[in-house]
Specification:
With 337 residues, this protein is an alpha+beta fold. It has helices at 60-66, 70-76, 80-91, 105-115, 131-139, 148-154, 166-178, 182-185, 222-225, 229-232, 294-336, and strands at 2-11, 27-36, 42-49, 96-100, 127-130, 190-191, 204-207, 211-215, 244-252, 256-263, 267-277, 283-291. Strands 3-2-1-4-5-6 form a six-stranded mixed β-sheet. Helix 6 packs across helix 7.
């Protein structure tokens, strides 16, 4: 298998979200990629600038970071569809896996493809390697992620090229990949959420040594998600046994639900559902299940209680506001009479 390590640079509306084109918050301006073979040896590179079509002025922060300007893009850039077709041809027909630093690049690549009405050739689920996540798992605490330049410094690698341009960042990402323990951490693939399951039969189920992940199809409302049994069921990460819930699913904030289940053989399993919005402004769920210890049990119980108190306070505040409005209207009516 080959590894296509790629990086994107993009521009956005100089005025922020208010002037952004719907479903195209970022317009790609540069694609850089490094191809590695099965031994993580470099076998080729790809680099192209893209002539802007949507955002014709450079956002000042992007200009500061990349040192790129519109004159360079207009003069040296090519249309997105031309560059994209060349990039896919360069990736080749041999089996390959995309590798990125972080989780945004594949989503933004497909958003730009959709805007330019290019066919999407990628499979569902589209699995890739998030090297930032893998680096965090191997060299960090598994939670707090570091920047690419910091990872290069921590590994004592020579910084012979600048950062924050597509080909250079792809090169450094490939360097980091080459020093990873891929036998141990290469199994922790990520799944891209741009191309969601089209129906129930296609819903994604991924299994890892310490946790499992389930990605649902789209729903019309958040409430419909919690009515789906496959989403709310809990199975043991180790033996796949259907589990009894000790703490039923409870909301925490606007987007999260948690639960706690018990496996008779392997102990506690904690569940988390994150509700996300799709490109079509519908809803889908990403459920993860992980083994849990006594500390996790206490934290979940505390989250449930904190959530209950917040909802109670919110309901009390809403009722009090309604009562005050009612009294105000009554006082105004009394004055008139």
């Amino acid at each position: 298998m080959n590894y296509i390590v790629f990086d994107l640079e993009w521009n956005q509306s100089p005025n922020g979200k208010e002037d952004s084109v719907e479903h195209l918050p970022f317009e790609i301006t540069e694609i850089g990629a490094v191809k590695l073979n099965g031994n993580f040896e470099e076998t080729g590179t790809f680099h192209k600038l893209i002539r802007p079509k949507v955002y014709k002025k450079m956002h000042f922060k992007i200009s500061e970071v990349t040192h790129m300007d519109m004159a360079e893009l207009r003069q040296a850039g090519e249309p997105f569809d031309v560059v994209m077709n060349r990039f896919l041809a360069w990736c080749g027909e041999e089996e390959y896996r995309f590798c990125t630093w972080g989780s945004m690049d594949l989503t933004e690549l497909q958003r730009n493809m959709a805007y330019h009405k290019l066919p999407n050739p990628f499979p569902r689920p589209l699995l890739y390697l998030d090297i930032q996540k893998l680096y965090c798992l191997q060299y960090g605490d598994g939670k707090n992620k570091v920047s690419l330049d910091m990872a290069v410094q921590l590994q004592g690698m020579e910084e012979e090229r600048p950062f924050h341009r597509a080909l250079d960042d792809a090169y450094y990402t490939g360097r980091i990949l080459s020093v990873m323990d891929m036998e141990t951490f290469g199994t922790y693939v990520s799944v891209d959420y741009y191309g969601l399951p089209r129906n129930k039969a296609e819903e994604y189920r991924l299994h890892f040594p310490e946790y499992s992940k389930y990605v649902s199809r789209e729903f019309d409302s958040r409430e419909d998600i919690l009515k789906d049994k496959d989403i709310t069921d809990m199975k043991c990460v180790k033996c796949s046994r259907m589990l009894r819930k000790k703490l039923r699913w409870f909301p925490y904030g606007q987007r999260f639900y948690f639960c706690l289940a018990v496996c008779p053989e392997h102990g506690y399993v904690k569940g988390k559902i994150r509700v996300k919005k799709s490109e079509d402004d519908r809803f889908y769920a990403v459920k993860t299940a992980k083994m849990a210890d006594e500390q996790d049990v206490e934290l979940l119980a505390q989250k449930k209680e904190d959530g209950r108190k917040k909802r109670s306070a919110k309901a009390h505040h809403k009722a009090a506001s309604k009562s005050l409005k009612g009294k105000s209207k009554q006082n105004q009516s009394d004055k008139v009479s």
